Amino acid sequence: MKKAIKQESFNFEDFEKEAVKRLMDGEELTGKDGVITPLVKKILERALEAELAQHLDGADASSGFNRRNGRVRKQMKSGHGPFELETPRDRAGTFEPEIVKKRQTIIGTSLENKIISLYGLGMSYNDIRNHIEEMYGIELSQGMLNQITDSIIPEIHEWQNRPLNSLYPFVWMDAIHYKVREEGQVVSKAVYTVLGINLDGRKELLGIYISESEGARFWLQVLSDLTNRGVKDILIASIDNLTGFSEAIKTIFPKTEVQLCVVHQIRNSLRYIPYKDSKIFLTDLKKVYQASSKKAAEHNLNELEEKWGKKYPVVFKSWRTHWEDLTQYFKYPMEIRRIIYTTNTVEGFHRQLRKVTKTKGAFASENALLKLIYLASMRAMEKWSLPAWGWKTTLQKLLILFEDRIDPKLITDTV
Questions:
Q1: Using one digit for the tens of pLDDT, what is the confidence trace for 45-60?
Q2: In three state form, how does the secondary structure of 155-207 look?
Q3: How far is the C-alpha of 172 from the C-alpha of 169, rounded, in Å?
Q4: Are strands 185-197 and 203-211 parallel, antiparallel or unpaired?
Q5: Half-sphere exposure of 365 (CA within 13 A, CB side)
């Protein structure tokens, strides 16, 4: 049985000797019954006593009424291990401790940060609870874990409403879908993602939004939010061919050139092509989207339709309908073409999110989804410190192509 440190007479030298002895006996420094836990307890209790003394010397002292009124005990959890804390109280009930607040049961931010970090890695509450109990000997309820992760919601709202730059040369917009429990049912939610490159050539996540399903009407709200946060112009936006999406962009940013994702269009085409024809068709289709110019692409599309049009008319109807928005990239030099012809940039970001969320069958709530998406996004953005490859060359060409829309004053000396 471990020897307890006497509560009524605490001397640091005595504690030091006792701690060394216990460590030499093979006991743990931290965790449940850890050697350091009594020290944390004593320091906090002494600090609370000092805080109460200061309170009693304040405004209530003149009345002569208020004075100490015993202690209240509560179970505390910390990164060093759990312990029972005795908090002093006053007779008037006006003492509001700041060091350990009345309803606070977790000490220090390190444990909370650890829990939030584990949640951000995609761990379930059950896994987090088991991990914390194994590491620190602390039992946490699901309600407490939820309360801890909910503490980042104000941070999320602040991030969602932060000011943005006035101009973004390139922006990609796409949505990723998740299952969420809502009022006893599992429903599909769309997480709208707006990813851009700023004038410094650095990737920037402009916003994440959650709605019932993907649609042009909600994208209109997203774009309106961007303007409210300071975005005045987007040079080129790369999107999928969602019905009404281009029109929504033109409504808010009338000068923006919209490039439909060619890769999405290819995938949609292959949905109608049987496997036996898909490889040959794809080889022929490359002559269209990899052409040197729009004129050459149109010529190759005509030849492709002559060969396959009667067999797969739906495919060519789609290409013809979206042709202008699919071929915007041909007017630009190769450095810009490779950036805008596809939404692969935002899809790559979505793949990073899926690595974290892949174990989730359905999220318990929309808030649970938002918290994890935000934490995973922040982790992904830590790697976005360098400008895009060859950005200086790209920027010089943008300055020529959009000289009336790019204010040189907005370009930093670091570019």
A1: 777 787 788 888 775 5
A2: HHHHHHCCCCCCEEEEEEEEEEEEEEEECCEEEEEEEEEEEEECCCCCEEEEE
A3: 10
A4: antiparallel
A5: 6
pLDDT digits (tens, 9 = 90+) for 244-286: 898 999 999 999 999 999 999 999 999 999 999 999 999 999 9
User: Helix/strand/coil (H, E, C) string of 325-344?
Assistant: HHCHHHHCCHHHHHHHCCCH
| Per-residue tokens: 80 | 């060093």
Q: Over range 180-207, report the average pLDDT.
A: 93
Residue found under tokens 């928005």: 325
Whether 233 and 402 have beta carbons less than 8 Å apart is answered as: no
The helix or strand, by DSSP H or E, that contains position 109, with its residue range, turns out to be: helix 109-120
Q: Taking CA 297 as the corner, what is the angle to CA 255 and CA 195, rounded to the nearest 5 degrees?
A: 40
Q: What are the percentages of helix, strand and coil residues in the chain, rounded to 5? A: 50, 15, 35
Residue ranges per structural domain of the chain: 12-153, 163-401
CA distance 221 to 248: 9
Q: What confidence score (pLDDT) does residue 252 get? A: 96
196 phi and psi angles, rounded to 5 deg: -135, 170
Phi and psi at residue 80, to the nearest 5°: -95, -15
Distance CA 56, CA 8 (A): 22
- Distance of alpha carbon 281 from alpha carbon 307, whole angstroms: 10
Q: Is 306 exposed, middle or buried (0-12, 13-18, 19+ CB in 10 A)?
A: exposed
What are the CB-based long-range contacts (under 8 Å, 24+) for 347-350?
A: 347/174, 349/193, 349/195, 349/205, 349/377, 349/380, 350/174, 350/176, 350/193
pLDDT of 4 > 50? The answer is no
For 93, the 3-state DSSP assignment is: coil
- The phi, psi pair for 141, rounded to 5°, reads -80, 165
**How far, in Å, are 270, 316, 345 from residue 276 at the CA level?**
11, 19, 31
Give the model confidence (pLDDT) of 101-148 as tens digits. Answer: 777 777 655 677 888 888 898 988 888 888 777 766 667 788 878 888
Q: Is the dihedral of CA 293, 299, 302, 307 positive or negative?
A: negative
Between CA 327 and CA 325 the distance in angstroms is 6
212 by DSSP, 3-state: which? Answer: coil
| Residue 107 near residue 76 (C-beta atoms within 8 A) | yes
Average pLDDT over all residues of the chain: 85
